[in-house]
Design goal:
By secondary structure, the chain is α/β, with parallel strands linked by helices. Helices cover 30% and strands 20% of the residues. It has a single domain, classed as 3-Layer(aba) Sandwich (Rossmann fold). It contains four helices and five strands, in the order E-H-E-H-E-H-E-E-H. Strands 2-1-3-4-5 form a five-stranded parallel beta sheet, with helices on both faces. InterPro entries: CheY-like_superfamily (IPR011006), Sig_transdc_resp-reg_receiver (IPR001789).
Length: 122
Amino acid sequence: MDKRILILEDDFYLADDEKALLEKAGATVVGPFGRSCREEDLFASGELDAAVVDINLGAGPSFDLARALADRRVPFVFVTGYDEAVIPGDLSHAVRLEKPLRERQLVATMARLVAGQTEANG
């Protein structure tokens, strides 16, 4: 998976695990970014092929960064403990994986996502 993948996750250990898994699969990881991430941070290092997005980056559910990714047509997966009912309708197309993640689940989902196959909900 020779792709640039952004990680938005405020839990250091989970972000580190996600980064290691994706790098092991051949991805170039951008971030991880956590609580202090701003929209301009997302694209400062260049184009992105996909992203892993936690719904709660410390202050409750927030969808601003996910919308910024969607506006730029960057496919992403929500990795969250929240129920899918929390996700607004305009972002309901996004794949949702529940925490805790299984190693193969994240890598396989991201591989499908960057290949343009987004129908595989988690």
